[in-house]
UniProtKB/TrEMBL annotation:
Keyword Ribosomal protein appears in the UniProt entry: no
One Gene Ontology term, aspect cellular component: membrane
Lineage: Eukaryota, Viridiplantae, Streptophyta, Embryophyta, Tracheophyta
Localization: Membrane
UniProt superkingdom: Eukaryota
Membrane topology listed for this record: Single-pass membrane protein
Protein name as annotated: BYPASS-related protein
Family: Belongs to the ROH1 family.
One Pfam short name: ROH1-like
Organism the protein comes from: Deinandra increscens subsp. villosa
Alphabetized UniProt keyword annotations: Membrane, Transmembrane, Transmembrane helix
Length: 343
């Protein structure tokens, strides 16, 4: 795994955790696994933006979270199609699944907290806009102070909960090398399918973190074996997303999220005018700046709420999966037919 340069701690440590787990076996994927991997490949293709301006947007974030939910559904269907019921799993498999799903819930919790912080930024700007609309000179001074406070607030609290999200991604990385399965093709299919889910989740999670980060973070560059049917579409998606985020930083912007960049641009137009006066700028142009900031701020709130709603849905899907696993596993004592060997 390669990493881009940057002063901040990367999501993943040096090394390539994406080592092919079955590279020394002649095992061929089953028909149901092939169908699963083709669906995953299509999801990666659908997430690839056709316009560079859409990297990263609230719309993309919502679609990305939805795609993980779809893959989780596919995993459940795959277990049924493989006739590999949860009650037949080794106890260590259950422990591993519960531990990994708990990490997903930890990410949802930390990211949800940062969404709340973003809502507070919206409120700050809304107060500034109300002061601007009043036309009162004293209110204009308050508006100027609010705009400055918003810029400082975004930078000051960047690493609060986002770092917790990064820690979860690092912990997920540690579980990528799933246990090898001995002489059980169906179990090997499930291991391979879970690998795809983890790669998808890690990439999307790391991109979600980058969206709200105002400091240049190291982007993950996941190296996936070519044997996977979704290798090509995933690699293309990762190249496009990471490349455009790097371009955004290179251009001087500090907000990878499209909707935040729009707000920042409007704030930077208004703040100097409130400090130094309109100068050659007409009142009409000034009012236009205010209207654009109000519009971009309202769009930001709508997008933020949509992402929060999708994150809540993802949280529920993970919780329901944990409960279903426990219910099925407790139906009868686990069988020991699925033997694990150390890597």
């Amino acid at each position: 795994m390669s990493r881009s340069d940057g002063p901040h701690r990367p999501f993943l440590p040096i090394g390539n955790p994406f080592k092919m787990m079955m590279h020394k076996t002649s095992h061929l994927p089953s028909t149901v696994l092939t169908a699963y991997e083709k669906c995953l490949a299509e999801r990666f293709r659908q997430l690839k933006p056709t316009n560079a301006a859409d990297v990263i947007s609230f719309s993309w974030m919502k679609s990305a979270l939805g795609s993980i939910c779809e893959t989780l559904d596919d995993i459940r269907n795959l277990i049924v199609d493989l006739e590999l019921p949860i009650c037949s799993w080794d106890g260590k498999w259950v422990d591993m699944y519960l531990d990994n799903s708990l990490k997903l819930l930890d990410f949802c919790s930390a990211y949800g907290t940062d969404i709340v912080r973003q809502r507070f930024g919206y409120v700050m700007l809304k107060c500034a806009l109300l002061d601007l609309e009043s036309g009162n000179p004293q209110k204009l001074m308050l508006a100027s102070s609010s705009l400055h406070e918003w810029m400082q607030y975004q930078r000051r609290y960047d690493n609060s909960k986002l770092q917790d999200c990064c820690d979860v991604i690092c912990k997920l990385e540690e579980t990528l090398n799933l246990p090898k399965i001995k002489n059980i093709p169906k179990a090997k299919d499930l291991v391979r399918a879970m690998y795809g889910l983890k790669v998808q989740t890690m990439f999307i999670f790391s991109t979600l973190v980058a969206a709200f980060s105002t400091t240049r973070r190291t982007l993950v560059d996941l190296q996936v074996p070519k044997e996977y049917l979704w290798h090509g579409s995933f690699t293309e998606l990762q190249t496009v997303m990471n490349g455009e985020i790097k371009n955004i930083y290179a251009s001087g912007d500090i907000y990878p999220l499209k909707e935040l960049r729009m707000i920042d641009q409007n704030v930077k137009k208004l703040y100097p005018l409130l400090q130094d006066g309109l100068g050659e700028i007409t009142q009409e142009i000034f009012n236009g700046y205010c209207s654009k900031l109000k519009e971009s701020n309202e769009k930001f709130l709508v997008g933020l709420d949509e992402v929060k709603s999708e994150m809540d849905r993802f949280f529920k899907v993970v919780v329901d999966g944990r409960m279903a696993l426990l219910d099925n596993f407790q139906q009868q004592p686990p069988k020991r037919g699925v033997q694990q060997v150390r890597m």
